[in-house]
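Why does residue order matter? Because the sequence determines the fold. Keep that principle in mind as you read this record.
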Amino acid sequence: MRIVLIGAPGSGKGTQAKLLEERFDYAHINMGEILRNSQSHKIHGDRIKRLIYTGNLLPDDIVEDLLRDAVDGTKNDKIVFDGFPRNESQLRVLKRIATPDLLISLYTPTPEKLYERLITRNRPDDTEEIHRNRISTFYAETTQMIRHIVQAGMNIRTLAADNEIEIIHTEIRKLIGERHND
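Structure:
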Protein backbone atom coordinates (compact mmCIF):
# COMPACT_ATOMS: atom_id res chain seq x y z
CA MET A 1 0.00 0.00 0.00
CA ARG A 2 1.24 3.48 -0.87
CA ILE A 3 0.00 6.19 1.48
CA VAL A 4 0.43 9.93 1.15
CA LEU A 5 0.25 12.13 4.24
CA ILE A 6 -0.76 15.66 3.26
CA GLY A 7 -0.74 18.56 5.67
CA ALA A 8 0.71 21.93 6.44
CA PRO A 9 4.13 22.18 8.06
CA GLY A 10 3.62 21.26 11.71
CA SER A 11 0.49 19.15 11.10
CA GLY A 12 2.17 15.94 12.28
CA LYS A 13 2.88 14.23 8.95
CA GLY A 14 6.39 13.26 9.95
CA THR A 15 5.32 11.96 13.34
CA GLN A 16 2.63 9.75 11.84
CA ALA A 17 4.92 8.54 9.04
CA LYS A 18 7.56 7.54 11.60
CA LEU A 19 4.96 5.59 13.58
CA LEU A 20 3.93 3.70 10.42
CA GLU A 21 7.59 3.00 9.71
CA GLU A 22 8.36 1.80 13.24
CA ARG A 23 5.19 -0.16 13.94
CA PHE A 24 4.23 -1.54 10.53
CA ASP A 25 7.47 -1.56 8.53
CA TYR A 26 6.45 1.08 5.98
CA ALA A 27 9.23 2.65 3.96
CA HIS A 28 9.15 6.31 5.00
CA ILE A 29 9.88 8.68 2.14
CA ASN A 30 10.27 12.13 3.64
CA MET A 31 10.71 14.61 0.81
CA GLY A 32 11.87 17.41 3.12
CA GLU A 33 14.63 15.21 4.52
CA ILE A 34 15.60 14.05 1.03
CA LEU A 35 15.87 17.67 -0.08
CA ARG A 36 17.88 18.72 2.97
CA ASN A 37 20.24 15.80 2.37
CA SER A 38 20.55 16.70 -1.33
CA GLN A 39 22.08 20.12 -0.76
CA SER A 40 25.45 18.67 -1.67
CA HIS A 41 24.09 17.14 -4.90
CA LYS A 42 26.67 17.63 -7.66
CA ILE A 43 24.28 19.10 -10.20
CA HIS A 44 21.40 20.66 -8.23
CA GLY A 45 22.90 21.21 -4.75
CA ASP A 46 23.23 25.01 -4.75
CA ARG A 47 19.78 25.50 -6.25
CA ILE A 48 18.21 23.08 -3.74
CA LYS A 49 19.90 24.85 -0.82
CA ARG A 50 18.79 28.30 -2.00
CA LEU A 51 15.16 27.23 -2.43
CA ILE A 52 15.00 25.32 0.86
CA TYR A 53 16.29 28.28 2.85
CA THR A 54 13.66 30.57 1.35
CA GLY A 55 10.84 28.08 1.96
CA ASN A 56 9.97 27.76 -1.73
CA LEU A 57 9.07 24.62 -3.65
CA LEU A 58 11.65 23.06 -5.95
CA PRO A 59 11.11 22.59 -9.69
CA ASP A 60 9.42 19.33 -10.66
CA ASP A 61 12.37 17.99 -12.64
CA ILE A 62 14.64 18.02 -9.58
CA VAL A 63 11.92 16.64 -7.32
CA GLU A 64 11.07 13.89 -9.78
CA ASP A 65 14.70 12.73 -9.99
CA LEU A 66 15.09 12.67 -6.22
CA LEU A 67 11.73 10.97 -5.63
CA ARG A 68 12.37 8.31 -8.28
CA ASP A 69 15.72 7.51 -6.63
CA ALA A 70 14.04 7.22 -3.22
CA VAL A 71 11.25 4.94 -4.47
CA ASP A 72 13.67 2.80 -6.48
CA GLY A 73 15.87 2.52 -3.39
CA THR A 74 13.18 0.85 -1.31
CA LYS A 75 12.30 -2.80 -1.76
CA ASN A 76 9.15 -2.36 0.29
CA ASP A 77 5.62 -2.51 -1.17
CA LYS A 78 4.40 -0.46 1.79
CA ILE A 79 5.44 3.17 1.38
CA VAL A 80 4.35 6.29 3.24
CA PHE A 81 5.09 9.61 1.53
CA ASP A 82 5.61 12.44 3.98
CA GLY A 83 5.30 16.01 2.69
CA PHE A 84 4.87 15.14 -0.95
CA PRO A 85 3.09 16.08 -3.14
CA ARG A 86 2.44 19.72 -2.31
CA ASN A 87 0.77 20.87 -5.52
CA GLU A 88 -1.01 19.45 -8.57
CA SER A 89 2.16 19.32 -10.62
CA GLN A 90 3.91 17.25 -7.95
CA LEU A 91 0.83 15.01 -7.74
CA ARG A 92 1.30 14.22 -11.44
CA VAL A 93 4.98 13.44 -10.73
CA LEU A 94 3.99 11.05 -7.94
CA LYS A 95 1.41 9.32 -10.11
CA ARG A 96 4.09 8.67 -12.75
CA ILE A 97 6.41 7.11 -10.18
CA ALA A 98 4.14 5.39 -7.63
CA THR A 99 0.38 5.92 -7.80
CA PRO A 100 -0.92 6.30 -4.24
CA ASP A 101 -3.60 3.98 -2.87
CA LEU A 102 -4.70 6.37 -0.13
CA LEU A 103 -4.17 10.05 0.58
CA ILE A 104 -4.67 11.28 4.14
CA SER A 105 -5.08 14.99 4.74
CA LEU A 106 -4.08 16.04 8.25
CA TYR A 107 -6.18 19.13 8.75
CA THR A 108 -5.19 21.83 11.24
CA PRO A 109 -7.82 24.54 11.62
CA THR A 110 -5.55 27.48 12.45
CA PRO A 111 -2.06 28.59 11.44
CA GLU A 112 -1.41 29.53 15.09
CA LYS A 113 -1.50 25.85 16.09
CA LEU A 114 1.02 25.10 13.33
CA TYR A 115 3.36 27.88 14.49
CA GLU A 116 3.22 26.53 18.05
CA ARG A 117 4.39 23.14 16.83
CA LEU A 118 7.00 24.48 14.43
CA ILE A 119 8.84 26.61 16.98
CA THR A 120 9.66 23.47 18.98
CA ARG A 121 11.59 21.89 16.09
CA ASN A 122 15.30 22.50 15.75
CA ARG A 123 16.33 22.52 12.11
CA PRO A 124 18.56 25.06 10.38
CA ASP A 125 15.83 25.86 7.85
CA ASP A 126 13.28 26.58 10.60
CA THR A 127 12.87 30.31 11.02
CA GLU A 128 9.69 32.30 11.55
CA GLU A 129 9.93 33.80 8.06
CA ILE A 130 10.39 30.39 6.44
CA HIS A 131 7.51 28.94 8.52
CA ARG A 132 5.20 31.71 7.39
CA ASN A 133 6.23 31.23 3.77
CA ARG A 134 5.74 27.44 3.91
CA ILE A 135 2.34 27.72 5.58
CA SER A 136 1.29 30.38 3.08
CA THR A 137 2.45 28.15 0.21
CA PHE A 138 0.52 25.25 1.71
CA TYR A 139 -2.72 27.21 1.84
CA ALA A 140 -2.16 28.65 -1.65
CA GLU A 141 -1.09 25.48 -3.48
CA THR A 142 -1.73 22.35 -1.45
CA THR A 143 -5.34 23.12 -0.57
CA GLN A 144 -5.97 23.63 -4.29
CA MET A 145 -4.39 20.21 -4.95
CA ILE A 146 -6.63 18.63 -2.29
CA ARG A 147 -9.71 20.08 -4.04
CA HIS A 148 -8.44 18.54 -7.29
CA ILE A 149 -7.95 15.15 -5.59
CA VAL A 150 -11.51 15.23 -4.24
CA GLN A 151 -12.96 16.27 -7.60
CA ALA A 152 -10.97 13.53 -9.37
CA GLY A 153 -12.50 10.93 -7.04
CA MET A 154 -9.18 9.76 -5.64
CA ASN A 155 -9.18 7.91 -2.31
CA ILE A 156 -8.62 10.74 0.18
CA ARG A 157 -9.61 10.99 3.82
CA THR A 158 -9.31 13.93 6.19
CA LEU A 159 -8.31 13.63 9.84
CA ALA A 160 -8.14 16.35 12.49
CA ALA A 161 -4.44 16.99 13.12
CA ASP A 162 -5.08 18.82 16.38
CA ASN A 163 -5.91 15.56 18.21
CA GLU A 164 -3.40 13.64 20.32
CA ILE A 165 -0.73 11.73 18.36
CA GLU A 166 -2.06 8.28 19.34
CA ILE A 167 -5.66 9.21 18.49
CA ILE A 168 -4.58 10.30 15.03
CA HIS A 169 -2.46 7.17 14.64
CA THR A 170 -5.41 4.94 15.60
CA GLU A 171 -7.54 6.65 12.96
CA ILE A 172 -4.83 6.13 10.33
CA ARG A 173 -4.52 2.45 11.31
CA LYS A 174 -8.27 2.04 10.84
CA LEU A 175 -8.03 3.61 7.38
CA ILE A 176 -5.22 1.34 6.24
CA GLY A 177 -6.40 -1.80 8.00
CA GLU A 178 -3.31 -2.28 10.17
CA ARG A 179 -3.58 -3.72 13.63
CA HIS A 180 -0.96 -3.03 16.25
CA ASN A 181 -0.32 -5.42 19.10
CA ASP A 182 1.12 -3.32 21.92
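The mean pLDDT is 88.
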